[in-house]
Amino acid sequence: MKVTKTTQEEISKLNLLLNEIEWLSKDFRSGMDLSSIDWESYEILNKLPRDSEQRFLEILCHKIAGNHFQRVLTNCSVLLENCADKNERTLEFNPEIKLGFEAVELLKEIHGHIKNKDIFSSEINEKLDALINEQNQKK
Q1: SS3 of residue 84 by DSSP
Q2: Residue 68 region by backbone torsions, left for phi larger than 0, else alpha for psi between -120 and 50, else beta
Q3: How large is the C-alpha radius of gyration of the chain?
Q4: pLDDT for the residue 120
Q5: How many CB atoms lie within 10 A of CB 129?
Q6: CB within 8 Å of 118: residues ≥ 6 apart
Q7: 49 — alpha (psi -120 to 50), left (phi > 0) or beta?
Q8: Are 53 and 37 in contact (CB under 8 A)?
Q9: Which of 65-69, 97-101, 109-113, 117-121 is predicted most confidently?
Q10: Cα 8 → chain centroid
Q11: From CA 82, how far away is CA 47, in angstroms rounded?
Q12: Mean pLDDT rounded to a whole number for the chain
C-alpha cells in the first residue's frame, strides 16, 4: 500500500485544530456556550459560524476532514509499525534500524582506515563480527 507522505504543515494544522477543540471542550465544561466564549483566542474556530450549533458542528466536521487527518494518522501508524521498537514503552527505533545505524558508523570508521591506509585493527574486526552475528541472529 502506498500512501502520500503527510507534510509538516498538515500535521501543524491538524494539531492546532485539535488543540482548539480541546480548549473549546474545557470552555463548555466550565458552563460556557457558543455565545459566551472568547473567540479571539481561537485561530481556526473563531472563523466558524456561531449563529447555529448545528451549522457550527457541520463546518467543524468539514474542517477536521479537510485537514487530512486520516493521512496523518496512517503515516503515523505505518512509521510505528515499521520503525518503532515494539518492546519499548517509549518511542525508540526498532533493533534492525539501530543495527543499521551501527553499521553506518562502522563503515565510516573502516572508510577512515582505508583512506589512511591503516591496517584494520582487531577492534574493528571484533565490531564487524559482532554486527554480523547480531544480524544473523535476527534471521
Answers
A1: strand
A2: left
A3: 26
A4: 64
A5: 10
A6: 112
A7: beta
A8: no
A9: 97-101
A10: 10
A11: 39
A12: 89
Distinct helix (H) and strand (E) counts, the chain:
5, 0
d(CA 80, CA 94): 9
Q: Which amino acid is at 17?
A: L
Q: Phi, psi at residue 84, to the nearest 5°?
A: -85, 150
**Is the CB of residue 138 less than 8 Å from the CB of residue 96?**
yes
Q: What does the domain layout of the chain look like in residue ranges?
A: 8-83, 95-138
Contacts 24+ apart (CB under 8 A), 10-17: 10/67, 10/68, 10/71, 10/72, 11/72, 13/67, 14/67, 14/68, 14/69, 14/72, 16/43, 16/44, 17/44, 17/45, 17/63, 17/64, 17/67
Residue with cell 501543524: 12
pLDDT range class, residue 3, cuts 50, 70, 90: confident
Q: Which cell numbers in the block locate residue 4?
A: 502520500
* Residue whose C-alpha is closest to residue 61's, from 76, 45, 46: 45
